[in-house]
Amino acid sequence: MRLGLDIGGTKIEAVVLDDQGETLYRQRYSTQKQSYDAFFHSVITAIDAARAATTYSLSIGLGIPGASATDGLIKNSNILVLNQQPFVQQLEQHFNMPVAVTNDANCFTLSEAIDGAGKGYGVVFGVILGTGCGGGLCVDNRLITGPNACAGEWGHNVLPHYHPAKDGESAQCYCGQTNCIESFISGSGLERQHAQLFSKHDKVPQIVARLNAGEEPVAALWERYQDQVARALAGVVNTLDPDAIVIGGGVSNIPQLYDGLQARIAQYVFGKQCCTPILQARHGDSSGVRGAAWLGAQRKA
């Protein structure tokens, strides 16, 4: 059996999957962030509870915000107490077994590649369009992470063909770079552009409601947004040319996102052609925790 934990800034979700990917156990906990010791203890508690709930031995996989650096310490996590901690090594010492850990976008991609929308495709690029703009890469159902743990981090490349006349004011990203893809096509990036144009701090659902109501200025913003998504994905096609691209996150649930997207991407692809399937994630919000479970099983094997 496979235990997966999806660790976020507010909650920890734990599931146990069987060989067919059926969920046999599910539990949620609040993320303890007041100190690293409190955080570590809460993860141990969640794992112990799952192990106690089944009579089978469990592999363990975790999805976290952040990545494990080459020195074994966690970096780039929005759970600040986790940064610069030897989290994985301590877990493995505590349980005396392998523990697989990667970021949440990688878990999403692995889940969708194994038994989600990307099932059956050799090379799958996973995209999360949510608060941020994450990504991951799977080849033959195995994650590619790279020596810098940066494979798939497309959101922190510069938006291709950026021009203020069509994309608005330059945007400073939290990573320290300017005009990152994430600053434009994440859900928060769409909200930022909307606020910039209309001086209204609407959230994505409100923006979509205005789009559906036929408001022409919002339709023009959406046209700009789709073009930005197409430019960003064309960069993936030109670099990697994956067999399929799977999109998740809150923005992936907007039907208009997919309208003519393949043709839009083709405008920016070398050769002006794009036959890459652009697919909506099958498992939705469950992809992260499911991917963590599959990752743990692969690590143990």
TrEMBL record:
Question: Which keywords does this Swiss-Prot/TrEMBL entry list?
Answer: Carbohydrate metabolism
| Statement: the UniProt record of this protein carries the keyword Mitochondrion | no
Query: Is-annotated flag, keyword Amino-acid biosynthesis?
Result: no
Q: Which InterPro entries did the record assign?
A: ATPase_NBD, ROK, ROK_cs
SUPFAM superfamilies in alphabetical order: Actin-like ATPase domain
Q: Which PROSITE patterns match?
A: ROK
User: What PANTHER family would the database entry show?
Assistant: D-ALLOSE KINASE-RELATED, ROK (REPRESSOR, ORF, KINASE) FAMILY
Q: Spell out the protein name for this chain.
A: ROK family protein
